[in-house]
């Protein structure tokens, strides 16, 4: 069982202004609770015990809002990129910098600004990944209007493809091995996509197409749509 996770929560959320001028995007309320709390609840139900959250923008608000994780039966620790390095380090840079807070073992990764209430961080998927030689297993979703061309494809054998006739959108959720980031410097900005594409060329990234509800909460309009009473 994969019992650790990293939630990415360092971004400024420029497209969400003015909402994010005073509140980090993952702490904005969705249906009565902070957006990031939906992930914390799902991770706890999946048996995850250790969660690291990387932060930069308004980062003092995260410990104030989430505490040590005991409210969810978790232990939360924070990788404060703002205090230590002056700002967000992009995805791979943030992961590499947070790795010392994780065990040298597979971990779940998810962005704190996506909403996918039906995703249960499947234990069976984590077990298959742990038994494989893959460096990452990523979850793709049908392309939303804001990303019509998609990001990656899926082969008939379930491998992620950097080039494909049909591409889907990376959900931000995946299972990762620390080894993928062995050459990524701590404390420096680095993007995730190039690392994934390089590993895909060697057949070391698998993928699943997830068809459940998924929203990249990237604009005030998308947030408002999620909060319409139903």
Essential attributes:
single chain, 230 residues, alpha/beta, Spore Coat Polysaccharide Biosynthesis Protein SpsA, Chain A, 7-stranded mixed sheet, two-stranded antiparallel sheet
Q: What this model shows, in words?
A:
This protein has 230 residues and is α/β, with parallel strands linked by helices. The chain has a single domain, classed as Spore Coat Polysaccharide Biosynthesis Protein SpsA, Chain A (Alpha-Beta Complex). It has seven helices and 13 strands. It has helices at residues 35-45, 61-66, 81-85, 90-98, 123-131, 193-201, 220-226; strands spanning 4-9, 29-30, 33-34, 50-55, 75-80, 107-111, 114-115, 136-141, 153-154, 160-161, 169-176, 205-209, 215-216. It has a seven-stranded mixed sheet, sandwiched between helices. Strands 2-3 form a two-stranded antiparallel sheet. Helix 2 links the parallel strand 4 and strand 5. The longest helix has 11 residues, at 35-45. It starts with a strand and ends with a helix.
């Amino acid at each position: 069982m994969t019992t650790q996770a990293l939630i990415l929560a360092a971004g400024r959320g420029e497209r969400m202004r003015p909402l994010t001028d005073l509140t980090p995007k993952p702490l904005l309320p969705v249906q009565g609770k902070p957006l990031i709390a939906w992930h914390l609840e799902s991770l706890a139900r999946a048996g995850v015990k250790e969660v690291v959250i990387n932060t930069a923008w308004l980062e003092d608000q995260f410990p104030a809002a989430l505490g040590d994780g005991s409210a969810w039966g978790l232990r939360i620790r924070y990788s404060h990129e703002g205090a230590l390095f002056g700002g967000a380090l992009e995805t791979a840079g943030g992961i590499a910098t947070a790795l010392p807070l994780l065990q040298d073992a597979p971990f779940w990764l998810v962005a704190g600004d996506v909403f996918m209430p039906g995703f249960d961080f499947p234990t069976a998927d984590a077990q298959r990944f742990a038994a494989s030689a893959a460096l990452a297993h990523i979850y793709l979703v049908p392309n939303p209007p804001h990303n019509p061309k998609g990001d990656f494809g899926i082969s008939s054998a379930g491998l992620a493809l950097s080039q494909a006739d049909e591409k889907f959108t990376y959900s931000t959720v995946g299972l990762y091995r620390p080894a993928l980031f062995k050459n990524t410097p701590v404390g420096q900005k680095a993007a995730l996509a190039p690392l994934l594409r390089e590993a895909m060329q060697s057949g070391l990234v698998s993928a699943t197409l997830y068809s459940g509800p998924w929203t990249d909460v990237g604009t005030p309009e998308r947030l408002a749509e999620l909060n319409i009473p139903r």
